[in-house]
Specification:
Elements: H1 2-7, H2 13-20, H3 24-37, H4 40-53, H5 55-60
Helix pairs in contact: 2-3
Length: 64
């Protein structure tokens, strides 16, 4: 998922590296916080990437 966000220009290499050192829950929080600060376009890209990566979770979260 981080790779998709990096490819789409939503996060930078530095932001990806910082998220990579955290626990799974902390990594998720850090990525979500980073993307939220970047606005609605970045948030939409995150949702889109999540829907592509994990259909079950995105359905459970009513994202699709």
């Amino acid at each position: 998922m981080l790779d998709k966000l990096l490819e789409r220009g939503v996060i930078t290499d530095d932001e990806m590296d910082l998220a990579g050192t955290a626990s799974r829950a902390d990594k998720a929080r850090a990525v979500i916080d980073t993307v939220r600060r970047k606005g609605s376009e970045a948030s939409s890209a995150l949702i889109s990437a999540l829907c592509e990566e994990d259909r079950c979770l995105s359905t459970e979260l009513n994202l699709t």
